[in-house]
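Reference record:
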Amino acid sequence: MSGRAREAEAAYSDAIRAAAEGRHPRAAAEAWVQLVDSIGGRQAQAERALGLQLAAEAALAWDGSDPVLQARFLTALARIRLNQGDSTDAAELATRALELLEHPATPAAGGDIGRQLERANVITMLGKAAYSRGEFEVADRHYQSVLTIRREALGPDHPDVASALNDLGDNDYARGRYAEARANLELALALRTRVLGPGHPDISNTETSLGALFYATADYRAARDHYARAVAIRSAALGPDHPRTAGALMNLGNAEIVLGDLDRAYEHYEAARAIQERVLGPEHPEVAYSLTNLGFVLRNFTKQDRLAESIRFYERALQIREKTLAPDDPTIGHTLDNLGEAQAAAGKLPQALVTLGRALQIREKAFGPDHPDVAATLLNLGDATARSGDPQEALALLRRALQILDRALGPDHPDVGLALIALAEVEVGVRDPAAREHAERAVKLLEAAADVSPGDRAHAQFLLARALDDRARARELARLARENYARDPNADPQALARVDAWLKSHG
C-alpha cells in the first residue's frame, strides 16, 4: 500500500469511529472520501462491510450544514455501489448529490469554478451508471457535459480532461461509433502521455481502451501492441501481482488467441488467474473472467480431453457469476454463450440448446435485437440447431445473425466472413442454391482480411469447392484449402482428413 493510502486508511478509521459515536467532524469525513478515491474497491472487501455501513450512515444522516461535503459523500458512495454492481442505487445517490450542488442555497465551494468541477464529478458518476446499464445515449450526454465543464474550468491540457475524453471514447466504442471512439481515445492518450508521463497508470487505461477498439475492428496486431503496453505499465507501476495487472494480462491473451498463438494466450490467462485467486480469492468475479478465457483457449485445442476441461472452467465461471450478479446480467449471457458452444462441440446438444437459448434471451434483453453479441449467440445456436437435425430452423437463425453483423460491422468485417461460413456450411448440407453465393463472398472477404487464421480461409475455400459445379475450380479450391489447413497449427486434423477424402472421391 502506498504512503498516501496508509494515511488515508488511518483517517478512514477515525471517520468510522466518529460515525459510530454519532460525531461527524469535517476532517474525518473528508478523509473517508479521500480514501475511496485512494484505494477504490478495497472497501468492498468483506472485512470492511461494517465500516462501510457506518460510513454510509454518517453520509446519509449528515445534518445539512455542509451540502457540498454531503454531495461528495453521496458521490463516493455511488462509486462504491457501482463497483458492487448496483448501477440503479449508484444513479440515485449521484442524482441526490447533483440536486444538492444545484440547489440555489448551496454555497459555491471554491467559487463558481469549484461548484462546476464538483458537478462534473457527479455527472461523471451518472454517466458511468448509465453506461453500466447499457444506456449509452444517456451516458454520452453526461460525458459530453463533463468534457465541456472541465475544458472551460481547467483548460484543454488537464488530466481530468483526458479522463473525460477516455470515458467518452469508451462510450462511443460501446455504441459502435468506432471512428469517434478512436479520435477521442487517441486525444486522451496523447494528453495523458504529455501531462503525466509515459509510465503513469492512467495511461494503461487508455491503452486498454484502444486495444479493445482495435480488437473490435479486427486490427489484432495493433490491439496486441496496446495491450502489451498496458501490461508493461501496470506491472511497473502497480506491481506484477496487482489485480489490474492481471486484467491487462487477460486482454493481451485475447489478442494472442485471434493471432493464433494459443499457447501464449494460455500462459497469460493462467498468470492472470493465479494473481486473482491469490489476491482476490477463488470466488471473486474477476476469477470467473479468467476461467472463461481459459475455457475458450482449451475449447480451441483439438484434444477432446481439453474440451471437457473447457466445459468445467465455464461451469465454474457460471457458478461464480450467478452468485454475484443479477440473473439477467450480460456477463452471465456471455458465459452461457461460451458454455453452450463448448457443449455443442462436445456433442452435448440438448444441453447446448438450453444453454444458448438462455444466453440469447439475456443478450437480447441487455443489448436489443440487433447487437453483434446477439448475432454471436445466434451463430452458436444455429450451429447447435443444425447438428440437432433441424437445418431449416438453423438457417433462419444464421441468416438473422448475418443481417445483424452486416449492418453493425460492415460487409467487409472478418466476423461477417465467419458468419457466412456458418451459413454456407448448413446450406451446402441441404443443397441450398444460396450456398455458392455465401461461400464465394466468404472466400473473397477472408482472403482480403489481414488477421484471419489459415484454417478459417481453408474452411471457406472448401465450402465453396463443395458448392461449385465447376469441377476444375472446385479441385483447385480444395487443394488451396488443404494447404491452408496444413499451415495452421491450431487446425482440426479431421478437417484436413475431410479435404483429403473429398479430393480422393472427386479425382
